[in-house]
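Q: What would this chain look like folded?
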Amino acid sequence: MSQTKPELHRAVELLCGASFSVAMTGAGVSAGSSISTFRAEDGIWARFPVEEYGTAAAFRRDPEKVWQLFGSLDDELRRAHPNPAHAALATLEQMGLLGGLVTQNIDGLHQAAGSRVVVELHGTVSTGHCPCCRQSYRREDIPPWPPAPHCSSCGAILRPDIVLFNDIIPEQAFWHATQLFRQADVVLAVGTALEVAPASWLVMSAPAYGAVVILIDPDPPLKAQAVASVVVPAAAERALPELVEIARDSLGHHPRRPRQATDR
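A: My prediction, written as C-alpha cells:
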C-alpha cells in the first residue's frame, strides 16, 4: 500500500459525496508530459527572465524578443502528449465525479485527453490574434518564425492567445471559472503552487464558500495545505490514476450521473 493510500481514499469519499466538484490544475500536471514548469530552478523563467520575456509590457517593448519565448514553448508543446494525470482527470469527469476543470496550463492537453468542460484561465497556444486589427489565427495559420510572424491584413506582429503577466484574464474564462467554483462543494487542486492570482484566489477562498479542498502536489505549498482538508504529497501522474482505481472500486465500476453546472 502506498503512503498516500489513506489520503486518496479520503479524497474519493469526498468526491463521491459531492454534489458538484471542480478541479484546478497547474504546471505540475503537464510536467509528466515533459513540459517545463515556469518556476523550477531550471524552468522557463530561468531561461527567459519574466520581466524581459513574460509580461505584456515586454511584448509592447520588443515583440520580436518575446517571440523567442513563444518559440521555445511551441517546440516543447508540439512534442507533448497527454500523460496519465490528464487521462485520469478526463476519466473522473466521465465517471461523474468531476463537473469541470479550470487550468492554468496553455497546452491543450486536457482537451486532447478527453476532458470536455475545460476553462483555460491563462489562454492557449492553439490560437493567436493581431493586437492591432484583432484578426484571429489558428496556430497552423501563423507563419513560421523567426522572425516574428506578422498579420496578413495589417502587418502588425501577431500574439498567441497566452495571458502574460500584467495582462487581463479573458473575461469569459474568468466568469466561467468563477461560476464553477461558486457551485463546487469539493475542489481538487492538482500540480499548482497557487502563486499566481486569480487562480490562487479561487482555490484559497473555496472554504469560505463552503467547499472542501483536496490538494495533490509533490511539494504542496504551506499556504495551500492550510486550507486543504486532504493533502496528497505525490506527483499528479502517479496519484490521479490511483485515485481513479479507488473510485472505480468504490462505485462498482458504474459511473454516476454528474450534476451539471448552472449559469447562476
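Residues 1-35+82-122+169-253 form a domain with the Rossmann fold fold (CATH 3.40.50.1220).
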